[in-house]
Amino acid sequence: xxxxxxxxxxxxxxxxxxxxxxxxxxxxxxxxxxxxxxxxxxxxxxxxxxxxxxxxxxxxxxxxxxxxxxxxxxxxxxxxxxxxxxxx
Length: 88
What we know:
Distance between the termini: 72 Å
Mean pLDDT: 91
Radius of gyration: 28 Å
Strand content: 15-25%
Structural class: alpha+beta
Oligomer: single chain
Strand order of the largest sheet: 4-1-5
Low-confidence stretches: none
Shape: rod-shaped
């Protein structure tokens, strides 16, 4: 769990846990309860982001977006062509 000190710039040790810039980490439930009693904020640690996987997902979505835009353009051209033929 991520422990946030009331002083966001705190760097040091509390209850045996090292803090840097107001943030420490522990999964010890006893320590977590002590930190809560002292006014510290306890949160789940943010999940790590897998950048290469995100880049692959973005590339896939961009390719899908491009293909859909192409289909829309083709549909508009076809609709325009049909309308011109119908007006003759």
